[in-house]
Structure formats: structure tokens, C-alpha cells
């Protein structure tokens, strides 16, 4: 049962860390798609550049928290060994 708990916590940490990146990049993609549909501007690099900027900003703002979350989980795993 302990292995299942460790795996569950690992999946929870992965979701907690990747969630903001994925949700914000998806929201930007949807907004850009709506903008492109309304204006009939179909430039592929527009969507890519905006998503890249959002991901970089999220990493700059929340990177410390993400790293600390991973370190806490790693310390937890080492204490179990």
C-alpha cells in the first residue's frame, strides 16, 4: 500500500507543477484561435510565440515554487528509504 501512496503523491506533484503551465497555455491558445477566427488572420507563429511567452512568464514567476515542490517530494522520498 505504501508504494501506491508514493505513486499517488508523485502524480499529484506532477499535476500540481504542470497544471498552471498547461492551463494558461491552453487558455492563450483558445483566445488566439478566437482572435484569428474573428479577424481572419491565420498566422501560425502568432499562437506559438504567445504560448511561449506565457510559459516563460509562468516559469519565471512560479519556477521557485515548482522547484521547492519537487525538492519537498524528493526529500520525502529519501526519508522513506
TrEMBL record:
GO terms for cellular component: plasma membrane. Keywords: Cell membrane, Cell projection, Cilium, Flagellum, Membrane, Transmembrane, Transmembrane helix. The chain crosses the membrane at residues 21-42, 48-67. GO terms for biological process: protein secretion. It is found in: Cell membrane. It is a multi-pass membrane protein. Its main location: membrane. Belongs to the FliQ/MopD/SpaQ family. This is Flagellar biosynthetic protein FliQ. It comes from Candidatus Flavonifractor merdigallinarum.
